[in-house]
């Protein structure tokens, strides 16, 4: 959901991302990894399946909504090697694959998108069923909800076993809702439009108006796109702050 060019240390001088920058400088950055797109209106589903499995778009099961048993994932490998595998946040794949991947977790969101201030989540269920009647609504912004869950796990973990923590933020997926403090950091009038901005696609392959028209109508004006970019930067900076 977050483009590489929304990270300050990777070249965007218009956004504030100090904690992600720290990960870039002190961790590993996959600068030659590319999201291959999607065969549906949503890129968030296959991108997460590709990330977990290491497979290309065309090697996934369908759109990536289901990860079959024969598609081994990173957390599965680590779990089989003796790691405790913890998840918090979004899992847009199937519950069976989640049960194979993770041995524990909390504030687990099985879904694609929704109100960041009212995310329906589950606690870890060893049976793997995660019934709807056991869901509860988060009492804070999704980025804060998931970060707090990860911090609690790290604080309380006493086992000698190694662990793997997967914090899958819903942000910056739309709706781009950030606290007002972060929205005030980006004035839409000062947002620099990308050089390739166009009000509308220059051609129509029959698949151009499936998802994006829900965000803004066509043709799009520079003013409208500046507002969207400002909101995008705001929710990213808020997410970054939760990593600090």
From TrEMBL:
Obligatory cofactor(s): Ca(2+)
MF terms in GO: arylsulfatase activity; metal ion binding
Positions in coiled-coil regions: none
Residue ranges occupied by any Sulfatase N-terminal domain in the UniProt entry: 1-243
Listed Pfam families: Sulfatase (PF00884)
UniProt cross-references to InterPro entries, sorted A to Z: Alkaline_phosphatase_core_sf, Sulfatase, Sulfatase_N
Alphabetical keyword list: Calcium, Hydrolase, Metal-binding, Signal
Keyword Protease: no
SUPFAM superfamilies, alphabetized: Alkaline phosphatase-like
PANTHER family tied to this protein: ARYLSULFATASE FAMILY MEMBER, ARYLSULFATASE G
Homology family: Belongs to the sulfatase family.
Name by which UniProt lists this protein: Sulfatase N-terminal domain-containing protein
Species whose genome carries this gene: marine sediment metagenome
């Amino acid at each position: 959901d977050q483009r590489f060019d929304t990270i300050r240390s990777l070249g965007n001088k218009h956004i504030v991302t100090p904690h992600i920058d720290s990960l870039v400088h002190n961790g590993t950055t996959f600068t030659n990894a590319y999201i291959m797109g999607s065969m549906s209106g949503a890129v968030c589903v296959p991108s997460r399946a590709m990330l977990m499995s290491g497979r290309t778009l065309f090697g996934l099961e369908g759109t990536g909504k289901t990860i079959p048993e024969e598609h081994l994932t990173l957390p599965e490998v680590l779990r089989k090697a003796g790691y405790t595998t913890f998840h918090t946040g979004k899992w847009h794949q199937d519950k069976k694959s989640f049960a194979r991947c993770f041995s524990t977790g909390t504030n687990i969101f099985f879904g694609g998108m929704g109100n960041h201030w009212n995310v329906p989540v589950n606690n870890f269920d060893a049976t793997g069923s995660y019934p709807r009647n056991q869901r509860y609504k988060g009492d804070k912004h999704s980025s804060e909800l998931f970060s707090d869950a990860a911090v609690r796990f790290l604080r309380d973990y006493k086992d000698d076993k190694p662990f793997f923590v997967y914090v899958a933020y819903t942000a910056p997926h739309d709706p781009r809702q950030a606290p007002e403090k972060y929205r005030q950091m980006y004035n839409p009038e000062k947002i620099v439009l990308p050089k390739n901005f166009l009000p509308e696609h220059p051609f129509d392959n029959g698949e151009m108006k499936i998802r994006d028209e829900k965000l803004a109508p066509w043709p799009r004006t520079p003013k409208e796109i500046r507002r969207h970019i400002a909101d995008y930067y705001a929710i990213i900076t808020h997410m970054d702050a939760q990593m600090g």
